[in-house]
Structures are given as structure tokens and as C-alpha cells.
Amino acid sequence: MSTAFAMLAAVVLDALLGEPRRAHPLVMFGRIASLIERTLHADSRVVGALAWSLAVAPPVLAVAWLTHALASWMSWIIAAFVLYLAIGHRSLAEHARAVESALRAGDLETARTAVARMVSRDTDALDASQVAAAATESVLENGSDAVFGALFWFALLGAPGAVLYRLANTLDAMWGYRTPRFERFGWASARIDDVLNFVPARFTALTYALLGDRASAWRSWRAQAPSWDSPNAGPVMAAGAGALRVRLGGAAPYHGRWEERPALGEGSAPDADSIAAALRLVRRGVWLWLALIVAASVLVGGFDA
């Protein structure tokens, strides 16, 4: 039961407080990771894997030691606080609602500026529907990366699991690019993130399907996910788009050039309502996961008794 209630406490803390405005541990980790990368960088997969280990192992081991060495009630508090720092549910919602509000007000420039904080694509040339698509895609994908993935690994391995997952996800965002500098050095970061996300991404896709239009989600997941570049984002975004009955994917501008991407979902074109619906889908999914984990803990505790 302690794991279930620590998860519940972390989600409530995130809802009440959001991400720390100052001195977020992930910001500090990013600076340390940048220093490691600048110091060790070489066009080598082995060096990249070593750099990944040097960045991730110390904080994971430190959290593992703390949660085992301290009294049980202190370990519980630390675990809940660590998970609170690892999830970004409220932050995701705040960023998405800024885009939604601007679109509802007809302020396309503000909507473009707001969505630029959520996605890596160029936003200056996006029309209102494309802005809504970008925000909706970000909510669905980051629902998996920033929320459900951390919950999954916490449930499986406790606070060290959540730290491992979140730091691996951060390094993938920093180093996991197919650019001349990172294609080999960042290979380990990208592959480790793929492995850690494989199961939680599919649980996330299943959650979206169960809580939305099931038939559309299954069709989209089965037919469209295999054509997406990312083995984990494909199922999540295809199932999410299908669950929402909205058309996502398609052409998007990156670095001054429009790139064709596979279509996702089916139904209507995205708008401000699509962003709100995606946020509701993630929120309902979080509470479903918590309810299932608490119920499972009660059943296991009952059987143990």
C-alpha cells in the first residue's frame, strides 16, 4: 500500500504545486550532463554509453541508498517527493492551456508563441489548425513521457526506477539526435530511452484507447503506429488521436523545411477543443492508473493477511 499511496501523494503534490520554479533538480542534472558531454564527447557509441552511465548512475544510486537506509516513514516521504519531481502533469496542462486559450481568443500569434514552448518544430508558419495539432500531439506524447512512464517505473522499482526513467528521458532529449555530433555519441541514450519506454508507452496507448473512442483508437494504433519513426511515440499518438477522433500527424516544418509525416487518427481537424480533450484524456488516465494500483495493493494486502 505504501507504493500506491506514495504515487497518490506525488500526483496530488504535482496538482497543487506544479514544477518547482527555482532549482529544479532536472535543471541541475541537465547542466551536469552538458558538462559531461563537453568533456567526454567523441564520435563513439562506447564513449556515449560511458557518459550516460556517469550522468545517471550517481543520482539513481543515491536515491536507492536513501530509500533503503532511512526509517520507513522517511523513505516513504522521499519516494513520494522524488516521484512528484519526476512527473510533469500540471506543467504539461499549463503549457497546453496557454495554447488553447489563445486559439479560443483568435490570437494566432500568441498561440504560436505558446506552442513553441511545447514542440521542436517551427511554429511561425503554422495556421490555427496546425497549432492545435502540435499542442494535441505534445499532450498525448508527453502524457506518456512525462507522466505515465514515471508512474510505471515507480510502481515497478520505486523511487530509483522513477529517477532512472526520468533522467534517461532527459538525456534522450539532450543527446538522442541523429546529427553529426550525436548520431554515435547519443546512440546509447536514444536506445536506452526506447527500451525503458517500450512497455509504459503501450500501456499508455491502451489507456487512451480504453478511455476514448475504442474502435477508432484500435484501428489507428494497428494501421498507423508502425509507420511512425519512433517505436514508442507511434502507438501512443496513433491510439490517442484515434481515441479523440481527431486527425493529427501530416506535414510539419522543422529547421525551415516541411517534412512529411504519417497521418494519425481519424475524424475532424484539430482545434482548441482537441487540446482540451487530450488533457482530459491524460487526466482521466492518471486517475485510472492510481485507482487500479490502489485496488491491486488492497487485494494483495488482503491475500497476504
UniProtKB/TrEMBL annotation:
<dbReference type="GO" id="GO:0009236">
    <property type="term" value="P:cobalamin biosynthetic process"/>
</dbReference>
<feature type="transmembrane region" description="Helical">
    <location>
        <begin position="46"/>
        <end position="66"/>
    </location>
</feature>
<keyword id="KW-1133">Transmembrane helix</keyword>
<protein>
    <recommendedName>
        <fullName>Cobalamin biosynthesis protein CobD</fullName>
    </recommendedName>
</protein>
<dbReference type="GO" id="GO:0005886">
    <property type="term" value="C:plasma membrane"/>
</dbReference>
<comment type="similarity">
    <text>Belongs to the CobD/CbiB family.</text>
</comment>
<keyword id="KW-1003">Cell membrane</keyword>
<keyword id="KW-0812">Transmembrane</keyword>
<dbReference type="GO" id="GO:0015420">
    <property type="term" value="F:ABC-type vitamin B12 transporter activity"/>
</dbReference>
<keyword id="KW-0472">Membrane</keyword>
<comment type="function">
    <text>Converts cobyric acid to cobinamide by the addition of aminopropanol on the F carboxylic group.</text>
</comment>
<dbReference type="InterPro" id="IPR004485">
    <property type="entry name" value="Cobalamin_biosynth_CobD/CbiB"/>
</dbReference>
<keyword id="KW-0169">Cobalamin biosynthesis</keyword>
<dbReference type="GO" id="GO:0048472">
    <property type="term" value="F:threonine-phosphate decarboxylase activity"/>
</dbReference>
<feature type="transmembrane region" description="Helical">
    <location>
        <begin position="146"/>
        <end position="168"/>
    </location>
</feature>
<feature type="transmembrane region" description="Helical">
    <location>
        <begin position="286"/>
        <end position="303"/>
    </location>
</feature>
<comment type="pathway">
    <text>Cofactor biosynthesis; adenosylcobalamin biosynthesis.</text>
</comment>
<dbReference type="Pfam" id="PF03186">
    <property type="entry name" value="CobD_Cbib"/>
</dbReference>
